[in-house]
Amino acid sequence: MTEPKKIVLLGATGSIGENTLQVVRKHPDRLQLVGISAHSNAEKLAQIATEFNVPHAYLPEAAGKAENFPSATKLDRSTNGLLSLASLDNADLVVIAVVGASGLSPTLAALQAGKNIVLANKESLVLGGDLVMQTAKENQVKVLPADSEHNAIFQCIQGENQRDIDSIILTASGGPFRELPIKELQHVTIEQALDHPNWSMGNKVTIDSATMANKGLELIEARWLFDLPPSKLEVVIHPTSIVHSMVRFIDGCCLAQLSPPSMTFALQHALLYPQRAEGVHTSLDFSKPLDLQFIPPSIDRFPCLRLAKESLEQGGSAPLVFNAANEIAVEAFLLNRIGFPQISDIIDETLSRYAHPYKNDLQTLLFLDSEARRIATEVIGTLS
Ligand code: NDP
Ligand code: MG
C-alpha cells in the first residue's frame, strides 16, 4: 500500500472545504490532512484540527480568540501564515478553497513551492490566469480543476489531442431566476437569491449563480485552464445539473461527464487523480427517468454573462475588473444596499470607468484589483 497523499486545505471551513473533508473522511488510507486554514471561523477550524489530527493550521490574528485547538496542532497566526501553509514542506497537494481574489497569492505560493494544486478558487485564474498557468509550467506542477464544469472537461479530454478540440460547452443550472419574468428581478430578495435549486454552496458563489456571473467567471477560468480562445467556449443552460460540461471534438462528437450534483465527485477526482475509488455519494440511477434538457441562455436575463464574455474578449485587465466589481457588488447586495439587477449595472459602469494598463505580475495585479474595487465602490456611492 502506498503512503497517503499529504494535503493542505486552504479554506477548510467553507463549502468546498466541507466537501473536501467528506472525501478525506471516506479515504483515510489515501488522503491525509497536514494543513488547514480559515479566515474567521476559529471554532470550526479547531473542530477540523481535532477530528483529523492536523499538524498545521492558520488563522489570521484578526479572527480573534483561538481556543480548543489540540496540542498537536501548530497554529500560525502571523501575517504570512497563509502563504507559508500554501508552501508547507512535506505537502504533496494544496487545495485552494478560499473564496474571492484572496486566492491568487496562495495559489502562486503553492505553485512556486513546486506543489500540485487542486483549484476551486476560480477568481485566481480570472485575476492572473496567464501568470498562474505560466508559474505552474515553470515549476512543472499540475493545476487540477475542482470546479465541477472544469473537472468534467478535464475528465473528457484525457488522452485526447488539444488540436482536436473544437469547443467546450459549460453547463449552467440557470439558478433560481431562470424562469422569473425579467421585470420581477428588481424585487428579488437576498433569501430568494441564496436559494439555489440544485447546489448547496457558499453565499458568494450562490449569488453568482443567480446572476450567472459565476458562468462568466468559469468561461474565463476555462480559457486559461484549457488554453482555448473565447471563440471556442460556449455556455448552455441545463437545469438539472447532471451533465457537468461537454467537449465537442473536430469530428463532431461530443463527450460529457455525468454525476449527481455534489461537489464531492469533482473534488474526489482531482484529489485522487490519476486514481479512482468508491465515491462519497451513490452514482446516477438510470432505472428512473432522467431529465437532460439543454436550453440556450437568455442574454437579456443574464447581463453579467454578457459582460464576462465581453471582458474575456477584451483581455488585459478587463476580466480582473469584472471580477473585482462583481465581488464588491455582491457584497453590497448581501448587505441589502443595492437591488439584484444593480449587480450587473455596477460591473458595467466599473468596466467603462476603469482605464489602467495591464501588467502580469502579482504586485501589479493586486494593485489593479484594489483600484477596480475602489472604482466599483465609488459607483455604488453614486447609486445610493
Ligand atoms: P465559502 O464562503 O463557503 O468558504 C470560503 C472559505 O475561505 C472559508 O474557509 C473562509 O474562512 C475562507 N476565507 C474567506 N475569506 C478569506 C480571505 N480573505 N482569505 C483567506 N481565506 C478566506 O466559499 P466556497 O467554499 O463556496 O467557495 C470557495 C471557492 O470555490 C470560491 O472561489 C468559489 O467560487 C469556488 N467554488 C465553489 C463551489 C461550491 O460548491 N461552493 C463550486 C465551485 C467553485 P471562514 O469560514 O473562516 O470565513
Ligand atoms: Mg462551477
Quick recap:
This protein has 384 residues and is of the alpha/beta class. It has 14 helices and eleven strands.
SS element count, helices? 14
**Record field, number of beta strands:** 11
**Number of domain modules:** 3
Which ligands, by name, code or SMILES, are bound?
NADPH dihydro-nicotinamide-adenine-dinucleotide phosphate, magnesium ion
- Could you tell me how far the N terminus lies from the C terminus, measured between alpha carbons in angstroms? 62 Å
- Quaternary form: single chain
Strand residues, percent: 5-15%
In which order are the strands of the major sheet placed? 4-3-2-1-5-6-7
Would you identify the regions where 5 or more consecutive residues have pLDDT less than 50? none
The biggest sheet, with number of strands, parallel, antiparallel or mixed sense and barrel status, is: 7 strands, parallel
Please give the CATH architecture of the largest domain.
Answer: 3-Layer(aba) Sandwich
Return the CATH topology of the largest domain.
Rossmann fold
CATH superfamily of the largest domain: NAD(P)-binding Rossmann-like Domain
Describe the secondary-structure layout.
Layout: E1 5-10, H1 15-26, E2 31-37, H2 42-52, E3 56-58, E4 74-76, H3 81-86, E5 93-96, H4 104-112, E6 116-119, H5 123-138, E7 143-145, H6 148-156, E8 165-172, H7 190-193, H8 203-211, H9 213-225, E9 233-237, E10 243-249, E11 254-258, H10 263-272, H11 303-314, H12 318-334, H13 342-353, H14 362-383
Parallel strand pairs: 1-2, 1-5, 2-3, 3-4, 5-6, 6-7, 8-9
Antiparallel strand pairs: 8-10, 10-11
